[in-house]
């Protein structure tokens, strides 16, 4: 609602506007205005709006100080400063803080004069300024430290006074001022931990009191209450003032303390109690129970995404406790979960209906900490965790009366399955299968089925076949039935579970393929525009395809779906064409020759036409990948399958020409590199006459592309051409020397300049191997043209002091070095990387055939990179030592050391 302003107030606004515009002494206007105006609630906001809309002369702060010291409401003035502080530069902040903080301290420390809302707003201004000082500390470290050192003690005393009283459920305004204190403390701890450390003992007791008392209020209002009576509360700036946001802020501060080497001692002596109380905050709230009971999809989404809530924040704090203190932290958490489990047992025996909540929270904590606790067990920091999980879980899976507890038991066992006894694991798996079974669907609430799916999906991939074989048919039947009932998030979970079941039961997949595949295809078609569902569905079909005896029936099922779509692409719903191409590509990868031919017969012409005519980027990308996969699988046979091999080859070249059109949007050409690689590797004889035209088109496409990934893929093609020119690499160089390139003397200079910049961005083991060895080949050629190209090298630091923007314009960047020196540096960097991997015992693995269709069958992939580089360096040194030594002058010390290690072998 807009505030109403009387004539006197409007006169004040006009005066302030004039003051801001004229930059006169604004105190004169302010004093006159305040004598005339009758300030009313809401006027401060209007004042803030006027002040924030114009440039702020520093003298304007006098208005706000006068305004704050008067008997009028000063909330608006504080809002003004909060708005304006965000736009102040560093030098102004350094002047503002020493002038402003004493006034803010006076306001905050005078509860008898100022109400809570005003004091909270003053604290928010402290928080804003401290945040800015933190961002400046790198450049103004001495100034900020000096500025804050004198202020830290009085501020910490005030923070202590505000936090010392327990949280009261009936006083949400008290939460708001305490939350501002917590935010300020967090910034102090983050930005000036060394200064905060000495004074933090003052705050430790009140902070612990706040933590403990807030739990009582949280349990009363959120966990046990039907709703937070203060939900939806916001301050005048739109910031949330709920109990949830307050508790979240406590955890934020505790996380900062736990992660600070200087401040962690504040909590080190109290880890067990901290873990114990934190687990209580992990309990499901009544609101969560109601929401998740009504919509299981929301339950799945919130659990998977770790949304903004106390459960997620508390779990992060427990993880920090485990990670920061070694065995002590692990012991603290284990002791805490044992205490909480014991309490739940006592509550249950006493007949409490709430006993299950703390047990669910205990299991949630353990499930969240599975990775660090298992790591701690392997390191000998704790005893076996498996028996503990079994003890906590033995009574509770399959209890329909408490579905969320049953769901948590299933999920927790799945996280710790590697340390759980086979007998207990089999019993749990059987219970999960029973929970999924169709005949008892109505008896098992949706959350239990969610937990059962999580258990099955995580246990099956690692289970022994003998254990799961008796249950597989029941699992498949149950999951297929669930697919017909699931939606949104649960649908994705069920699909992932079914995929795990297919992989685990590959030996019986052929018998269930006729049941599963049609259902999955229908789901895929219905959700093709939803990538979260369609991608998982395709992965599931891929798992079925790879199972023994399944590819032929699956192909006969898929092709009738996709062929009509590809024949009439413009008549289809959005996303169906691109999705159909994805399905075809999936079938083509690592498929038998007769399957590839069957797909070629009905799809090749349609896919080629689609590339040539479509303007849809997604369709063009997927069609390119589809054709690349077809060539990779068919190789030379692709030319024999059609009635006219010449027509097939011309079609493939037409596709390359369209994708390499320099005027085509870059994203449409994204996978052209992979496509062209298939042509030159598998159809090298037919491509040989077209190499000059292809190289010219590659250069033109490179010069207009806007996507780094596309440039990298084009460089990979050039690297292939280098290898194909062996034993005379000069052929490749001379070819590019004859081709033009805009802005360069020739195409060779263009390609190598881009390659020198882009090499460090190349991703993938086989791609790095191909490009790196190609650079070694180019260097070993010692072609005269290499020395005519200058590229970016290491930054040479100047001794001229700080380089300002004006100096940078006058002194050009001294980073240009000859191309051979850059190549030598890149090869040396690769040697260093290999040496580091060898020293660490790492091995470099190539990608699987799905991500690199050439790599699995590529002779270049058999190259031993280390041996290749060593051999190349030694041969170069022996052939031309003076040149070799000259190039070494441009190397850094680590690079020179790596080269010397090679020569001294």
Automatic annotation (TrEMBL):
InterPro entries: ARM-like, ARM-type_fold, HEAT_IPO9_central. The keyword Acetylation does not apply. Keywords: Protein transport, Transport. Residues 271-511 form the Importin-9 central HEAT repeats domain. It comes from the Eukaryota. SUPFAM superfamilies: ARM repeat (SSF48371). GO terms for cellular component: cytosol; nuclear envelope. One of its GO terms (biological process) is protein import into nucleus. Pfam families: HEAT_IPO9_c. This is Importin-9 central HEAT repeats domain-containing protein.
């Amino acid at each position: 609602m807009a505030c109403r302003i009387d004539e006197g107030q409007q006169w004040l606004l006009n005066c302030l506007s004039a003051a801001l515009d004229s930059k006169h002494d604004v105190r004169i206007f302010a004093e006159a205005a305040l004598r005339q105006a009758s300030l009313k609630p809401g006027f401060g906001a209007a004042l803030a709006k006027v002040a924030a809309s114009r440039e702020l002369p520093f003298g304007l702060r006098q208005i706000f100080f006068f305004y704050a010291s008067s008997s009028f409401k000063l909330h608006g003035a504080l809002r003004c400063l909060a708005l304006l502080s965000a736009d102040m530069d560093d030098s102004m902040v350094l002047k503002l803080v020493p002038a402003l903080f004493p006034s803010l301290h006076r306001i905050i420390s005078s509860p008898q004069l100022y109400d809570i809302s005003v004091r909270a707003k003053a604290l928010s201004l402290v928080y804003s300024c401290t945040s800015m000082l933190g961002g400046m500390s790198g450049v103004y470290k001495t100034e900020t430290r000096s500025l804050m050192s004198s202020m830290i003690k009085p501020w910490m005393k005030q923070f202590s006074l505000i936090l010392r009283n327990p949280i009261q459920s009936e006083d949400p305004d008290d939460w708001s001022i305490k939350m501002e204190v917590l935010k300020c403390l967090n910034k102090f701890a983050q930005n000036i931990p060394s200064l905060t450390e000495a004074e933090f003992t003052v705050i430790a007791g009140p902070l612990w009191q706040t933590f403990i008392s807030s739990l009582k209020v949280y349990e009363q209002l959120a966990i046990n209450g039907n709703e937070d009576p203060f939900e939806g509360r916001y301050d005048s700036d739109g910031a949330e003032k709920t109990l949830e946001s307050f508790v979240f802020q406590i955890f934020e501060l505790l996380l900062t303390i736990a992660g600070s080497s200087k401040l962690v001692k504040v909590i080190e002596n109290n880890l067990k109690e901290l873990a114990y109380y934190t687990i209580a905050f992990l309990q499901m709230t009544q609101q969560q129970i109601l929401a998740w009971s009504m919509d299981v999809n929301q339950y799945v989404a919130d659990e998977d995404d770790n949304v903004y809530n106390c459960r997620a924040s508390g779990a992060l704090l427990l993880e920090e406790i485990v990670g920061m203190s070694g065995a002590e932290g692990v012991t603290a958490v284990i002791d805490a979960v044992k205490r909480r489990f014991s309490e739940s047992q006592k509550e249950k025996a006493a007949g409490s209906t709430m006993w299950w909540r703390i047990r669910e929270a205990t299991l949630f904590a353990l499930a969240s900490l599975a990775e660090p606790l298992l790591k701690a067990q392997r390191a000998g920091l704790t005893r076996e965790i498996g028996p503990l999980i079994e003890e906590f879980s033995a009574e509770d899976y399959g209890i329909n009366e408490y579905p969320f507890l049953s769901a948590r038991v299933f999920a927790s066992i799945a996280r710790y399955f590697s340390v759980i006894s086979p007998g207990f694991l089999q019993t749990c798996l059987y219970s999960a299968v029973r929970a999924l079974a169709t005949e008892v669907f109505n008896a098992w609430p949706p959350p239990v089925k969610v937990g059962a799916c999580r258990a099955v999906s995580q246990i099956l991939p690692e289970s022994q076949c003998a254990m799961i074989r008796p249950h597989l048919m029941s699992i498949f039947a149950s999951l297929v039935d669930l697919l017909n009932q699931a939606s949104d998030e649960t649908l994705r979970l069920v699909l992932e579970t079914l995929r795990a079941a297919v992989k685990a039961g590959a030996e019986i997949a052929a018998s269930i393929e006729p049941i599963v595949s049609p259902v999955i295809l229908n789901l895929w078609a219905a959700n093709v525009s939803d990538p979260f569902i369609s991608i998982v569905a395709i992965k599931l079909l891929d798992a079925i395809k790879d199972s023994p005896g399944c590819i032929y029936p699956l192909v006969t099922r898929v092709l009738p779906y996709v062929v009509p779509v590809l024949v009439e692409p413009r008549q289809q719903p959005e996303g169906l064409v691109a999705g159909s191409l994805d399905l075809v590509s999936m079938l083509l990868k690592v498929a038998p020759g007769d399957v590839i031919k069957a797909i070629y017969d009905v799809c090749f012409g349609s896919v080629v036409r689609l590339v040539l005519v479509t303007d849809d980027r997604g369709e063009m990308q997927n069609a390119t990948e589809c054709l690349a996969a077809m060539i990779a699988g068919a190789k030379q046979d692709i030319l024999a399958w059609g009635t006219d091999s010449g027509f097939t080859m011309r079609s493939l070249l037409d596709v390359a020409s369209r994708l390499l059109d320099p005027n085509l949007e870059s994203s449409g050409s994204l996978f052209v590199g992979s496509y062209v690689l298939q042509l030159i590797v598998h159809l090298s004889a037919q491509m040989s006459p077209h190499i000059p035209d292809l190289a010219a088109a590659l250069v033109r496409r490179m010069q207009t592309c806007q996507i780094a990934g596309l440039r990298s893929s084009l460089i990979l093609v050039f690297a292939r051409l280098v290898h194909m020119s062996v034993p005379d690499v000069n052929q490749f160089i001379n070819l590019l020397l004859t081709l033009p390139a805009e802005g360069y003397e020739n195409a060779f200079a263009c390609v190598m300049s881009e390659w020198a910049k882009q090499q460090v961005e190349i991703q993938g083991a086989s791609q790095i191997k191909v490009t790196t060895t190609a650079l070694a080949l180019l260097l070993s050629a010692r072609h005269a043209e290499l020395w005519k190209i200058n590229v970016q090298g290491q930054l040479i630091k100047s001794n001229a002091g700080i380089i300002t923007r004006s100096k940078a314009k006058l002194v050009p960047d001294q980073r240009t070095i000859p191309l051979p020196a850059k190549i030598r540096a890149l090869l040396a960097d690769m040697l260093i990387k290999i040496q580091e991997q060898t020293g660490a015992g790492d091995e470099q693995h190539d990608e699987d055939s799905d991500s690199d269709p050439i790599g699995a069958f590529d002779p270049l992939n058999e190259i031993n990179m280390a041996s290749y580089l060593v051999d190349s360096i030694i041969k170069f040194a022996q052939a031309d030592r003076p040149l070799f030594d000259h190039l070494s002058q441009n190397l850094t010390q680590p690079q020179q050391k790596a080269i010397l290690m090679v020569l001294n072998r």
